[in-house]
UniProtKB/TrEMBL annotation, chain A:
It holds the Pfam family G6PD_C. Catalyzes the oxidation of glucose 6-phosphate to 6-phosphogluconolactone. Its EC number is 1.1.1.49. GO terms for biological process: glucose metabolic process; pentose-phosphate shunt, oxidative branch. This is Glucose-6-phosphate 1-dehydrogenase. The gene is zwf.
UniProtKB/TrEMBL annotation, chain B:
It comes from the Bacteria. It holds the Pfam family OpcA_G6PD_C. Residues 165-294 form the Glucose-6-phosphate dehydrogenase assembly protein OpcA C-terminal domain. Residues 50-160 form the Glucose-6-phosphate dehydrogenase assembly protein OpcA N-terminal domain. This is Glucose-6-phosphate dehydrogenase assembly protein OpcA.
């Protein structure tokens, strides 16, 4: 008998034409009328349905404070979101099919009766939709509401796997706290109600195809790993630039700032993936083990004044438009010292990386939206050419572009055609979307699917979150009370950040 | 686009290089070469399907049309384009006349993308033996479509006799959606199936492969009955507490029925030829599950264990026209 998977005689691990489908389950979304749910979650659920990746027994159950008596207004609302946000073409038939699996329970978080109704509805879905007691709870709500919602779930037994007879998982969005202390509190709060293994912290960057390609690039090839160390690598630059301002998130952003919003999670995760050792297998636990080792080994510069720079954008011109400065944005106090740009030099105290600086930067209102990891290699120890022949030769670079134009660029020296010997940098590009243009799934699609499948590989765990705060907390402490450097909107950050690299004899790569 | 009349293979290679330079991008991310073998009357259909598949998997597209093998003088016409009517990638349509048609590989070999896998697809009736067609011998993956044959089941039997790992047939690709839904219906169930029934025309090769797959996986008798309407209408598997079934609801969806659970509707699309080819191009390794299904249907044992290597067997259709077609030998070398 041929091998089977998961006890299903029709599933064969060799049969890669059949997609892996999650168990019959419900996705319960708290705060389902919020921004994230409207723009990302509901469209992602529709796309999954359209691609045929949802199980036969699936229910999307919304919970929010809306005066909707039955499911109809919510279905109408969800339809609008799907029509606007879906990546795959909107089809009436797919929608009708999905609509029969969309339910809504109105209520506020402190309303006991509402949670009782929610628990009843969920039990009822077992009979009507065959969800077999499986449910994932997506907390698309502000962290301040976590305690009350979790308590309600505990009270009504929503998180009790034994009582439910299936799995119960919870999905949490960043920010995971605002410092190490609060992260620890938040983690123990969530872990108390759900088991640590059932908590999925979404960092949507890790759902991006290129980030996973980083694994393939590093561990499926022999070409790169031998030079992936301080002997060959000169420095690493990890950039996440946004051209947008703070949009409508003024209140949240002014409390948070760029370091907590981006550096603490996305950039440190990218750093961990870039620097980690090879995991012993490709599984959630083994990958986390390696990531946490790197995060523990991260060291801060001693001279924070020079190597931890933050900035705040002033008015300027961006993409042909005049944009206001941060202090001029709506609902931002004119005295705000919140940073919209942060750049820092980190070290990794391991044999592999000792002495290699990792430069991390993120900012808003930079010239373009781009996220990339650039590994800059050392220059050849000896160049057998005349000095004038190689004036245009820089460092070899390997750049992993996370977004947009997902792909890899390799920069190396090449002879300029002609009679003279002249060596200059050229770039070899691999566009992910060109060699394999299957329409790439949205990060949220992938992550929601992974939650339902119970695959925690792309989700950071407690220890990683707390360790990341260990790195960020001293920076925040140092910055508190200091004014960020101003930079013009539409420029690549404050001059102090350029000086920081110039001091080390390097310069920022223009992405 | 460059059109070359009465040309040579080397001129085609040069024209391709010139087109690549003109397109400005010398480093295309080519993942594979797709060779399409098609009759003149079906060129348009094959072109549009290959273009659709190439949009999902950028590849070098080589369309080979063999014409008038009895023409007195060999002749090659070619059309080279990049980013033109044949999709975003590189495409060459070649028409070969006279004896050249029997040596198509002499033109095609230098045009293959370097060190990338080759997929050969016969749009029309599959060859009786793939080893007879040199365009199939150098391919890593070979895709046939028995539904294009006058006698599809006879053609499917030939595919089993001639099988080598790396072969697949679009009759198999057509049931991926059905298999997905049926497998989903069995997720989370632990019961033992007793027998299965497929509601389809027994002469439908896809239905027969479906039956072969069920026999191989479940080890139960499977019956293909019904007919009338085209295509598979339903599949039913008897289990301890009733029946697990997938039924076609409309052209885009199917209904899953299981005991004790309300029926559910899920996507079950009828894929067009371009989508089918896109699915084929997704994987370049061989499909052992197809081999098992084909073996279970045909009774030819252990297809998956055969060697994937084929040697070209010279065969001249001009002589064959006089002599009767030789039966394929029992197994590939």
């Amino acid at each position: 008998m041929a091998p089977t998977a998961g006890g299903n005689p029709l599933r064969d691990p060799r049969d890669r034409r059949l997609p892996r489908l999650p168990d019959a389950s419900a996705l319960v979304v708290f705060g389902v009328t919020g921004d994230l749910s409207r723009k990302k979650l509901i469209p992602a659920v529709y796309d999954l349905a359209n691609r045929g990746l949802l199980p036969p027994g699936f229910v999307l159950l919304g919970f929010a404070r809306r005066d909707w008596r039955d499911d109809e207004p919510f279905i109408e609302f969800a339809r609008e979101c799907a029509e606007k946000g879906a990546r795959t073409p909107f089809r009436e038939e797919t929608w009708d099919r999905l609509a029969s699996s969309i339910k809504f329970v109105p209520g506020s978080f402190d309303d006991d009766a509402a949670f009782d109704r929610l628990a009843q509805t969920l039990t009822g879905l077992e009979a009507s939709h065959g969800i077999r007691g499986n449910a994932a709870f997506y907390l698309s709500i502000p962290p301040s509401a976590f305690p009350v919602v979790l308590k309600q779930m505990e009270r009504t037994g929503l998180a009790d796997e034994q009582a439910a007879g299936g799995w119960r998982r919870v999905v949490v969005e960043k920010p995971f706290g605002h410092d190490q202390e609060s992260a620890r509190e938040l983690n123990s709060l969530v872990d108390e109600v759900f088991g640590p293994a059932d908590v999925f912290r979404i960092d949507h960057y890790l759902g991006k195809e290129t980030v996973q390609n980083l694994f393939a690039l590093r561990f499926a090839n022999t070409l790169f790993e031998p030079i992936w160390n301080s002997q060959f690598v000169d420095s690493v630059q990890i950039t996440m630039a946004e051209d947008v301002g703070i949009g409508t998130r003024a209140g949240f952003y002014d409390e948070t700032g760029a370091a907590r919003d981006v550096l603490q999670n996305h950039l440190l995760q990218l750093l961990a993936l870039t620097a980690m050792e090879e995991p012993v297998s490709f599984g959630a636990a083994t990958i986390r083990t390696e990531k946490i080792k790197i995060l523990r080994a991260v060291s801060l510069p001693t001279d924070l004044d020079r190597y931890a720079i933050r900035g705040q954008y002033e008015q300027g011109w961006l993409a042909g438009d005049r944009v206001t400065g941060y202090l001029g944005e709506e609902n931002i106090p004119p005295s705000s010292t919140t940073e919209t740009y942060a750049a820092v030099r980190l070290g990794i105290e391991t044999r592999r990386w000792a002495g290699v600086p990792f430069y991390l930067r993120t900012g808003k209102r930079l010239p373009r939206r781009v996220t990339e990891i650039a590994i800059s290699f050392k220059q050849a120890p000896h160049l057998p050419f005349d000095a004038t022949d190689t004036t245009d030769l820089g460092h070899n670079q390997l750049v992993v572009r996370v977004q947009p134009d997902e792909g890899v660029t390799l920069k190396f020296g090449s002879k300029v055609p002609g009679t003279a010997m002249e060596v200059r940098d050229v770039a070899m590009e691999f566009l992910f979307g060109e060699a394999f243009t299957e329409s790439l799934p949205e990060a949220y699609e992938r992550l929601i699917l992974d939650v339902l499948l119970g695959d925690a590989m792309l989700f950071p765990d407690n220890a990683e979150v707390e360790e990341s705060w260990r790195i960020i907390d001293p920076l925040e402490e140092f910055w508190a009370g200091r004014k960020p450097y101003p930079y013009r909107a539409g420029s690549w950050g404050p001059p102090a950040a350029d000086e920081m690299l110039a001091r080390d004899g390097r310069r920022w790569r223009r992405p | 686009m460059t059109t070359l009349w009465d040309t040579t293979g080397s001129a085609v290679v040069k024209a391709l290089a010139a087109e690549r330079r003109a397109a400005g991008a010398l480093a295309f991310g080519l993942a594979l070469t797709l060779v399409v073998v098609v009759d003149e009357k079906n060129v348009a259909a094959a072109e549009s399907a290959a273009t659709g598949a190439a949009a999902a998997h950028p590849c070098r597209l080589l369309i080979v049309v063999r014409r008038q093998i009895d023409a007195p003088h060999p002749r090659l016409d070619a059309e080279v384009s990049i980013g033109g009517r044949l999709g975003p990638g590189e495409a060459i349509v070649m028409r070969m006349y006279g004896r050249l048609a029997l040596h198509a590989e002499s033109v095609v070999l230098p045009l293959l993308a370097s060190d990338a896998p080759v997929v050969t697809w016969w749009h029309d009736e599959p060859p009786t033996r793939i080893a007879f067609d040199p365009l199939g011998v150098f391919a890593d993956r070979r895709v046939t479509d028995v539904s294009r044959a006058a006698d599809p089941l006879g053609a499917l039997a030939l595919r089993a006799a001639d099988f080598a790992p790396g072969d697949t047939d679009l009759a198999w690709t057509r049931i991926s959606g059905w298999r997905t839904l049926l497998a989903a219906a069995f997720d989370g169930r632990a019961d033992q199936p007793h027998q299965a029934q497929i509601d389809a025309d027994p002469a439908d090769p896809s239905a027969q492969l479906f039956a072969g797959w069920l026999r191989a996986r479940l080890g139960v008798p499977v019956e293909v009955t019904g007919g009338g309407r085209r295509g598979i209408q339903a599949v039913r598997v008897a289990v301890d507490d009733g029946e697990v079934a997938v039924t076609r609801a409309d052209i885009r969806s199917g209904t899953i029925t299981r005991p004790g659970v309300p029926p559910r509707r899920l996507p079950l699309r009828q894929l067009d030829l371009g989508d089918l080819m896109a699915e084929e191009l997704r994987r370049i390794d061989d499909d052992a599950v197809y081999a098992d299904a084909l073996a279970a249907w045909s009774g030819v044992p252990d297809l998956a264990g055969r060697s994937g290597h084929r040697e070209h067997i010279w065969r001249d259709p001009m002589e064959q026209a006089a002599a009767p077609v030789a039966e394929p030998a029992g197994g590939a070398s």
